[in-house]
Design brief:
With 261 residues, the chain is of the alpha/beta class. The protein has helices at 3-6, 9-21, 28-37, 48-71, 87-91, 104-110, 155-168, 181-186, 226-229, 234-243, 246-250; strands at 76-80, 98-102, 120-124, 141-146, 171-179, 215-221, 253-260.
């Protein structure tokens, strides 16, 4: 498994960590996979503060996806860069066709813990390659989540990916997290992903830079909403609120929603 793929263990650890504490996210699957895999993290990648952040990020994605699925019960769901994430179990397919997409070696690992069904499919694909969407039937509407993915794409690569997705479906709604340029530059010196060998990432400061004639920026979402921060207690809550949420966090990390026009 290459270094980019190894980054999937960082959010997995975070989700398992908060789930065991009974806060933010209920993810028994993450707990089980983490215990079984025994992947060794070190340094900042095993920080409890990062674990809280990863748990909150996933909870926000889950809530948004659940809301979008309720609006259109015929929409296809694409989880790009799924890693070992159990979003399909936390949210449930609810009759939607759901596609978890990642590199072949990641999907190979994933199939040890997840089973495909009539509504749930795992797709081996490098989304940088042409025709990767040929494995996914065209649909009138698609809901796409890209969690922890965009920062591994140069801006033009990311824009091309979004254009390819919008061309495949009649309409789309997309939610993705992005580094700022400041965060991407700082990552060369201090970032948990460095601990698994990744040193090159990318950022974007203006979400409208990813717009096209078929895709429009909708709004920015809060990555660490107060309701979730309030699940922390005492000094941990105070420290997290001051250092890892609000305006300080936004200098590093943003959450953007797009839709078809």
């Amino acid at each position: 498994m290459n270094n980019v793929n190894k980054t999937l263990y960082i959010p997995l650890y975070g989700k398992a960590y908060v789930s065991r504490k009974g806060i933010i996210l209920n993810d028994k699957k993450a707990e089980a996979i983490w215990d079984a895999e025994g992947f060794e993290l070190k340094g900042k990648s095993k920080s409890k503060w990062l674990a809280y952040y990863m748990g909150m990020r996933s909870a926000v994605f889950d809530k948004w996806l659940h809301r979008q699925m309720e609006k259109d019960n015929s929409a296809a769901v694409l989880h790009i860069g799924c890693g070992m994430d159990s979003r399909v179990e936390r949210v449930g397919t609810k009759g939607h066709l759901w596609y978890d997409i990642d590199f072949p070696n990641v999907i190979c690992e994933r199939k040890r813990y997840y089973t495909q069904s009539d509504t749930y499919h795992m797709v081996e694909a490098d989304v940088r390659e042409e025709n990767w969407l040929s494995a996914i039937p065209k649909a009138k509407h698609a809901i796409i989540v890209m969690e922890g993915v965009s920062m591994y794409f140069e801006n033009e690569e990311l824009k091309s990916l979004l254009e390819e997705i919008t061309a495949h479906f009649e309409s789309v709604n997309i939610l993705m997290d992005c580094y700022t340029m400041f965060a991407a530059n700082a990552s060369k010196y201090k970032n948990p992903i460095n601990d698994v060998g990744v040193t090159q990432v990318y950022g974007i400061d203006n979400p409208k830079d990813l717009e096209s004639n078929r895709l429009s920026f909708v709004n920015e979402h809060e990555m660490t909403p107060e309701k979730l921060v309030n699940e922390l207690q005492g000094i941990e809550k105070a420290i997290f609120k001051k250092l890892y949420s609000g305006n300080i966090a936004k200098k590093m990390y943003r959450l953007y929603e797009y839709k078809s026009v």
